[in-house]
Amino acid sequence: MKQFDVVVVGLGVMGAAALRELARRGFNVVGVERFMPGHDRGSSHGETRIIRLGYFEHPSYVPLLQRSYELWRELEADSGRKLIRITGIVEIGMPVGPLISGTLAAARQHNLAHDILDGAEVMRRFPVFRIPSDYVGVWQPDGGFAAAEATVEALIELATAAKAKIRSNVSVLSIEPHGHGVLVRTSVGDIEARTAIVAAGPWLPTLIPNLPAPLRATREVMAWFKPRDPAPFVPSRLPVFILESRHGMHYGFPVSRAGHVKIAKHHHRNETVNPDDPRRLVSEVDEDLIRSVLKSHIPAANGPLAAATTCFYTMTPDHDFIIDRLPGAPNVIVASPCSGHGFKFAPVVGEILADLAIDGGTGHDISRFRFDRFG
Ligand SMILES: Cc1cc2nc3c(=O)[nH]c(=O)nc-3n(C[C@H](O)[C@H](O)[C@H](O)COP(=O)(O)OP(=O)(O)OC[C@H]3O[C@@H](n4cnc5c(N)ncnc54)[C@H](O)[C@@H]3O)c2cc1C
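Above: the input entities. Below: the structure tokens describing the complete assembly.
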């Protein structure tokens, strides 16, 4: 049996980024995906993902983001595709809320460009918003969005061009330590490799039943609304935004070419689901959870529902990523850079995973993402 340097299990955006980086470095790699890469049954679909630097989740993510921005630019140049669009970002909420206080802490600690706007100034600059006078906005010029499916496509194309092998519509059944490497059993036969990178998204706990982390898949909903007047939603007038209100934390994008405004609620219903039985039908209850914020704060977007779909977050209890070797199986590297905020990191995660697989370590600080934090 031919032995690969690395087998990558799962070709969502993280697996695709790792595959591409390993192939670019000249290693003999194979990626295995149970569907077709770019599919809409995992976590990496839905047209767009927000990218931003001042990170309310924790300031320690900022250096990774700064490297990721560099790599996004390289990825665009290498693929010849426009994958990110910088619109700026405005984050809106009460000054004491986790969104505003967290973003300001990260921005100040890392000297990131930002402006604080009072509520009236937010509504003057971005007239689609109706917000209470005690809300503020934090404007960051570096925010924007990445094209979701196009990024996966670009990574797979570049990986293939650099001689990576792709096995689509092939399910991995198990990953076992084997001699000095791993044996990956799939629906169409076995694969031997020195190292496995497992980036199986919400299916990680099924694939690695002894995973030392309490992961859960949550059902998320994205919705596209048709505003009566798209003019105030065009990217030159409206940046990407996050709005924390009594309705929860919602985020949205400028109007698409199709004339639709995509808006979603972060941690939609915080509902744990089986990724093989995710209830993909979007109900009126789902729609209302998103419409509530439109009615209160973005009435001009409260038009007909144009489309809606579901997606998964793979959540850790502390909402930080997992990027670590599997305890007891050092040739198995597990990557779950999700908890609902990983996409923007995909290029730097690809770099980190390739470093770990080939060099045994990485210069990036990934101490926050270890398994042993779960005791
Ligand atoms: C609604 C929504 C909005 C989001 N918004 C943002 C945002 O604005 N900004 C941001 O940065 N992040 C955002 N995220 C998070 C981001 O999209 C995820 O962190 C990222 O897509 C995770 O990618 P992944 O490759 O780890 O997982 P996935 O995309 O789920 O990929 C896992 C892959 O593994 C495959 N697989 C699983 N099991 C097997 C098996 N046994 N054999 C073979 N293949 C297998 C699956 O088919 C799948 O393709 C959002 C996520 C969602 C759902």
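Note for the figure: The chain has a mean pLDDT of 97.
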